[in-house]
Design brief:
alpha+beta, 13 helices
Length: 366
């Protein structure tokens, strides 16, 4: 990643807030929640980050402007196997490939138990998910070139890209992924890269999505509850404080999610500090004028290193997601967690939908 040029102007990505006529509109649910009235439903969230080495500035802008809510959501293996572009795709072609890829994953659960080393697994599906959740590097190594003792699982696949979509019922972890605050292995996250005037080179870093699944969708899509599988010793997920994968509360879906279940999306952005405090910063970012001024001063420290600047920025983004302390410095109710989750759940409750959890055997439970 290029470091900010602190002496010369930098070329910035598209920033809607730079428009003098910009007005903030709180995020809205786009999907039709009437589809889920009087049903048990599962509310899940997914974050997508605009990785620095995966997107050009033009591609980021196209992704930001495109609306994915009310459209099917596909894993990367579907796009790759169908030879389709992310922004311009034939949904009919993608759906065929999505069904094929999901079938290749789901069949792992019907092949009976398997022993690897001293570990006994009820099915190959749990071995597959365990590798995927614990280590993306190891997972993709197996996909590209399967090796002992996992050949029996990975040699079955006709794809070499990610066949899964990862979600969580806790909005803060998907938001961290979307903001680039998680470990992306060898891929480099996109950071705001504030200059000394407080202007972000990359003001929008990703998107956050919300999906709603009813019982029929759960039965069809077969989402795997990773936390429940860990609790019942079907697989083992890292829970050490240095790499607490378990805390992400992952729920994994193979292939795709149909359009009618993708009900919400919002850009994950950061404010600019190159001018005066904007009144909408409070509602959009949970940012008070006092906290704005404090971070404004941090960004203008001439001796602040690039590493320290990035660390301060990451800490600031974390607090946009979730207030650590309920103080006057941060408006907790407007942080992504719990604002977005409350938004979806309250609207669903108005439809008399009952918010449920996912059991291990792909069923909803209250």
């Amino acid at each position: 990643m290029l470091s900010p040029n602190l002496n010369n102007p930098i070329v910035c990505d598209y920033n809607p807030e730079a428009d003098p006529n910009y007005k903030y509109h709180p995020p809205q649910i786009i999907g039709n929640l009437d589809n889920f009235a009087n049903q048990k439903v599962l509310v899940l969230f997914r974050g997508v980050h605009l990785l620095a080495n995966n997107f050009t500035s033009e591609q980021r802008e196209a992704y930001i402007f495109s609306i994915q809510a009310n459209k099917p959501m596909y894993c990367s293996a579907v796009y790759k196997s169908a030879q389709q572009n992310y922004n311009f795709a034939d949904f009919g072609v993608l759906n065929n490939h999505a069904r094929n890829i999901a079938a290749q994953i789901h069949v792992l659960d019907s092949l009976g138990p398997i022993t690897i080393g001293e570990r006994n697994y009820a099915s190959r599906l749990y071995v597959f998910q365990e590798i995927y959740s614990n280590s993306s590097i190891h997972f993709f190594q197996q996909l590209y070139q399967p090796f002992y003792p996992y050949q029996d699982i990975f040699e079955r696949f006709t794809f070499k890209d990610n066949p899964l979509l990862s979600f969580s019922d806790d909005v803060k972890h998907p938001a961290k992924y979307g903001y680039g605050l998680k470990n992306f292995g060898k891929s480099e996250p996109l950071l705001p890269e504030y200059d000394n005037d407080g202007k972000p080179r990359h003001p929008i870093l990703g998107k956050l999505y919300g999906i709603v699944l009813n019982e029929a969708a759960v039965k069809r899509l077969k989402p795997l509850n990773v936390v429940k599988a860990h609790e019942t010793k079907m697989l083992k997920i890292y829970s050490h404080f240095r790499k607490n994968v378990l805390s992400e509360r992952e729920i994994s879906i193979a292939g795709s999610v149909p359009a009618e279940h993708v009900v919400f999306e919002m850009n994950l952005s950061v404010p600019s500090f190159d001018g005066s405090y904007k009144s909408y910063y409070f509602q959009k970012y949970g940012l008070t004028k006092r906290r704005y001024n404090n971070f404004y001063k941090v960004l203008r420290k001439e001796n602040l290193s690039r590493e320290d600047r990035n660390e301060k920025t990451k800490d600031f983004m974390s607090q946009i997601i979730e207030a650590r302390n309920q103080t006057q410095d941060l408006a907790n109710e407007f942080c992504i967690s719990p604002f977005v989750k409350n938004l979806l759940e309250n609207k669903l409750i108005q439809k008399n939908a009952k918010i449920a959890k996912l059991s291990l055997n792909y069923e909803l439970e209250l």
